[in-house]
Design goal:
The protein is mostly helical. It contains ten helices and no strands.
């Protein structure tokens, strides 16, 4: 029993080391891909990101989605972009969740689906993506893809407003004021100072 237990512990340790080395290598590869992308060498970025994405790296999956979305280094394909965004979004990548929500919201690369758009906006909003917070607030405000709920709309407008530079022209602040039906001065005093 002791020998088998030792072999299992050794196997587990070796496996953990291999995964650590692979994770470090993948992180380096992802940095190399981002550097290539930043300098406009999209084909080099694609060569690095594709194998990482196929091994379920959510950052690489999101990045491939972005390449297909914009047509940088590949032929633009919204369905391919949506496929990569879905894979990354399912693993919790907030930017992929937001982009996927936009695709569902606008019928880009897939049929429009406001219910799925609201779901993915919420996922990204909960991770602090300001534009997702604002779009989710609009959906609650208008009752599109989700039940109309003024309190939730106000909550998400407020969260979006907190994440932007505060100015009187902010559409999120404007909509929150209209929704709450309070004078601007009272709103500014209560929520902004």
């Amino acid at each position: 029993m002791g020998l088998i237990s030792l072999k299992i512990k050794t196997f587990t340790l070796i496996t953990a080391i291999l995964f650590s080395v692979t994770a470090c290598k993948n992180a380096g590869d992802d940095d190399d891909a981002q550097t290539a992308y930043d300098r406009g060498d999209y084909s080099a970025a694609l060569r690095i990101w594709r194998p990482l994405a196929e091994r379920s790296n959510p950052t690489a999956q999101f990045s491939l989605g972005l390449l297909y979305d914009t047509g940088e280094g590949v032929q633009q394909s919204y369905p391919d972009a949506a496929r990569w965004y879905k894979l990354a979004a399912a693993q919790g990548d907030a930017h992929a969740q937001f982009n996927l929500a936009l695709f569902y919201d606008n019928g880009k690369g897939m049929p429009a689906d406001n219910i799925k758009a609201a779901h993915w906006y919420r996922q990204a909003a909960e991770q602090g993506i300001r534009d997702a917070q604002y779009n989710l607030a609009l959906m609650f405000d208008e009752g599109v893809g989700i039940a109309k709920n003024d309190a939730e709309a106000a909550r998400w407008y407020r969260k979006a407003a907190e994440r932007i530079r505060i100015d009187c022209e902010s559409e999120a602040i404007h909509n929150l004021i209209l929704l709450l039906d309070k004078p601007v001065v009272l709103y500014i005093r209560k929520y902004l100072f």
